[in-house]
């Protein structure tokens, strides 16, 4: 296999999943998800990668993955944001059963069927929705294909380390974006498995898997164990991020295609003598709060690129000090924030303040 | 003269000694025992994993001494399919699901698994109502039957005429074995044990998809003493949900 590959974001996820040791993929054809599934099918034909199975619907895909995970498989699923509620339901069961899964959610415009173009209006649902029943799932948000690959590896490692479901949110633009991914720099290794399947369990190991506990005390104990697991997770995992530039005029915060455009706007502002820092969170849960606070220390003006009706801003809210001057650029409906508009916006806001 | 005794019945090895929560007269207890007896026809080392759905069947993991998984409502078949894919020929996978779950929100997954001929044994406990939720209308509730949501009797005008899902599954080409029996008459219980064991053997030796429906009674929700619930249900299902073997791998569709 060539170390350098020209790949779409969705395909880069697939390649990284193969290299991470993914054993089974379950999916259902929906925009962007199909690119990932088709890539994996091609690799399967070539004798590598997970066994791919197209299920009758997205919910079945998630619970087939649940069954396969119980039997010991390392599983990957993917769906479109319009089916995100199915993923949340499944994540609640994976959390309860203590099973690892990586689930990619390709985000598109909504509400309703919306359109297939990029939007980040599933952000809060993904971040808070996995709390259904007090379960939890980390939420990764890569941007360019190389990041998609790197984050997929991190997602598999996190899922395995804590035996939990992990979400990767990828907007439709990043899913389709093409670049050369140099896998020799990513150092992806097969993730060692921490458990065996239910058929192989012996002795005192649990031979039953249930998430139904009619006894209040027993349910309480299960919840307490999950709370401790989450505390240990949050104690260790402080969130992933990227900081680009170190300019003191403005800090731009964005993720996904927003971060790619922010970086380009930052470059376009250099000739105008405006120096920026771009802060890109690569996880929204846990949010890299300390690193964000440090980045905010570089400038008084904070520019938020929000590809939803205030969802990203609302997520950032608790981490923004009152002293910061906050500016929000909102773009929705499937449009990508254009660099010239971002440039003019930042320039204009800085001049008028 | 020395008397020699042969044990012809006993406590099934695969049945747990945990007291069951089922109501008096409920057929889930019979079904659970039949499952255990069918499992006991395999050698001790046979690897078997069961999946149960939501409802009265949801506590089956406590009652069977085999590897068990409790699935979410409507998802017993996808979970069983995923297990079966990963386990492959190394073990047997069965699903035991109530009809409210299996023929309701689980129907699509059931039909698709049947269509693909997944290596799976599916047992549907059909007691004609959603038992654990409190005796509500289920997909197989009979016309005129009183339920918590149709207290004046289930009307065809609003809920349609019941269909025989077992017959429907029989017609799916990739399905190997289909049978139905009443879990509340002595003769059929005896036959039923054989059906379940045969279904598991079809899975073991042919890797096929088998489907067994067990008709049951729900005395609590029928608000009848068990004996009367048996008589009433026996009469009510006659001609609508007939018993027998409908399909075998050797002969195909039989009736």
Global morphology of chain A? globular
Named CATH topology of chain B: Rossmann fold
Q: Largest sheet of chain B at a glance?
A: 8 strands, mixed
The total strand number of chain B stands at 8
The low-pLDDT segments of chain A are none
What does the oligomeric state look like here? heterodimer
Structure commentary:
The complex is a heterodimer of chains A (353) and B (255). With 353 residues, chain A is α/β, with parallel strands linked by helices. Chain A contains 12 helices and 16 strands. Chain A has helices at residues 9-19, 33-45, 58-70, 84-97, 123-129, 145-162, 172-176, 216-236, 257-269, 289-296, 311-316, 339-352; strands at 4-8, 24-27, 51-54, 75-80, 101-109, 115-118, 139-140, 165-171, 178-182, 208-209, 241-244, 250-253, 276-281, 283-285, 301-306, 325-330. In chain A, the strands form 3 sheets. In chain A, strands 2, 3, 4, 5, 6, 7, 8 and 14 form an 8-stranded mixed beta sheet that branches. Chain A has a 5-stranded mixed beta sheet with strand order 11-13-12-15-16, with helices on both faces. In chain A, helix 2 (33-45) links the parallel strand 2 (24-27) and strand 3 (51-54). The N and C termini of chain A lie far apart (53 Å). Chain B has 255 residues and is α/β, with parallel strands linked by helices. Chain B has a single domain (28-253), classed as Thiamin diphosphate (ThDP)-binding fold, Pyr/PP domains (Rossmann fold, 3-Layer(aba) Sandwich), CATH 3.40.50.970. The relative contact order of chain B is 0.15. The mean pLDDT of chain B is 95. The chains are: A alpha/beta (353), B alpha/beta (255). Strand 10 (208-209) of chain A pairs parallel with strand 2 of chain B.
Features:
heterodimer, A: 353 residues, Rossmann fold, 2 domains, 12 helices, 16 strands, globular, B: Rossmann fold, 11 helices, 38% helix, 18% strand
Blueprint (SSEs and pairs):
The complex is a heterodimer of chains A (353) and B (255).
Chain A: E1 4-8, H1 9-19, E2 24-27, H2 33-45, E3 51-54, H3 58-70, E4 75-80, H4 84-97, E5 101-109, E6 115-118, H5 123-129, E7 139-140, H6 145-162, E8 165-171, H7 172-176, E9 178-182, E10 208-209, H8 216-236, E11 241-244, E12 250-253, H9 257-269, E13 276-281, E14 283-285, H10 289-296, E15 301-306, H11 311-316, E16 325-330, H12 339-352
Parallel strand pairs in A: 2-3, 2-4, 4-5, 5-8, 7-8, 12-13, 12-15, 15-16
Antiparallel strand pairs in A: 1-9, 5-6, 7-14, 11-13
Helix pairs in contact in A: 1-2, 1-6, 3-4, 9-12
Chain B: H1 28-40, E1 48-52, H2 60-63, E2 67-70, H3 76-87, E3 92-98, H4 99-105, H5 107-116, E4 120-126, H6 131-134, H7 156-159, H8 165-170, E5 175-182, H9 186-206, E6 209-215, H10 219-222, H11 226-237, E7 244-248, E8 252-253
Helix pairs in contact in B: 1-9
């Amino acid at each position: 296999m060539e170390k350098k590959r020209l790949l779409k974001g969705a395909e880069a996820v697939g390649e990284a999943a193969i290299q991470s040791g993914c054993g089974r993929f379950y999916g259902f054809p929906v925009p962007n998800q199909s690119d990932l599934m088709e890539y994996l099918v091609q690799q399967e034909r070539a004798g590598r990668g997970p066994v791919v199975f197209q299920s009758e619907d997205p919910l079945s895909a998630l619970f087939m993955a649940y069954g396969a995970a119980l039997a010991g498989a390392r599983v990957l699923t993917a769906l479109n944001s319009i089916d995100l509620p199915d993923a949340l339901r499944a994540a609640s069961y994976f959390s309860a059963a203590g099973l690892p899964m990586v689930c990619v959610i390709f985000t598109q415009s909504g509400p309703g069927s919306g359109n297939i173009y990029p939007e980040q209006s599933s952000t809060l649902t993904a971040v808070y929705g996995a709390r259904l029943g007090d379960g939890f799932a980390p939420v990764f948000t890569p941007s360019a294909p190389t990041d998609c690959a790197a984050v997929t590896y991190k997602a598999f490692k996190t899922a395995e380390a804590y035996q939990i479901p992990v979400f990767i949110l990828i907007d439709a633009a990043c899913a389709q974006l093409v670049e050369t991914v140099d896998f020799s720099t990513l150092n992806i290794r097969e993730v060692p498995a921490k458990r065996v399947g239910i058929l192989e369990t012996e002795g005192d190991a649990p031979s039953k898997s249930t998430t139904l506990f009619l006894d209040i005390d027993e349910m309480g104990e299960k919840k307490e164990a999950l709370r401790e697991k989450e505390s240990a997770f949050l104690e260790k995992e402080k969130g992933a991020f990227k900081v680009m530039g170190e300019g003191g005029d403005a800090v731009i915060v964005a993720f996904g295609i927003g971060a790619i455009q922010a970086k380009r706007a930052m470059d376009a502002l250099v000739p105008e003598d405006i120096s920026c820092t771009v802060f890109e969170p690569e996880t929204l849960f846990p949010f890299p709060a300390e690193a964000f606070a440090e980045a905010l220390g570089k400038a008084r003006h904070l520019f938020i690129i929000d590809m939803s009706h205030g969802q990203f801003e609302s997520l950032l809210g608790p981490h923004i000090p009152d002293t910061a001057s906050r500016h929000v650029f909102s773009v929705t409906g499937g449009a990508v924030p254009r660099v010239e508009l971002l440039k003019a916006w930042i320039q204009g806001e800085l001049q008028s303040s | 003269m020395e008397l020699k005794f042969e044990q012809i019945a006993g406590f099934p090895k695969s049945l747990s000694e945990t007291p069951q929560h089922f109501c008096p007269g409920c057929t889930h207890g019979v079904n659970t025992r039949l499952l255990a007896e069918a499992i006991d026809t395999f050698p001790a080392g046979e690897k078997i994993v069961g999946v149960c759905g939501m409802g009265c069947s949801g506590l089956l993991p406590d009652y069977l001494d085999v590897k068990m998984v409790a699935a979410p409502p409507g998802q017993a078949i996808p979970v069983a399919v995923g297990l079966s894919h990963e386990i492959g020929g190394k073990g047997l996978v069965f699903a035991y699901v109530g009809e409210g779950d299996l023929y309701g929100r689980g129907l699509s997954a059931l039909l698709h698994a049947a269509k693909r001929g997944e290596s799976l044994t599916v047992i549907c406990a059909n007691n004609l109502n959603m038992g654990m939720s409190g005796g509500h209308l289920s997909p197989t509730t009979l016309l005129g039957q009183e339920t918590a949501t149709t207290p004046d009797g289930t009307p065809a005008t609003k809920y349609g005429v019941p269909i025989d899902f077992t017959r429907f599954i029989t017609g799916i080409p990739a399905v190997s074995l289909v049978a139905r029996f009443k879990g509340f008459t002595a003769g059929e219980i005896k036959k039923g044990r054989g059906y379940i064991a045969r279904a598991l053997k079809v899975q073991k030796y042919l890797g096929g998809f088998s489907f067994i429906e067990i008709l049951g009674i729900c005395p609590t929700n029928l608000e009848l003493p068990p004996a009367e619930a048996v008589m009433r249900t026996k009469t009510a299902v006659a001609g609508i949900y007939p018993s027998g073997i409908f399909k075998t791998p050797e002969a195909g569709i039989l009736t």
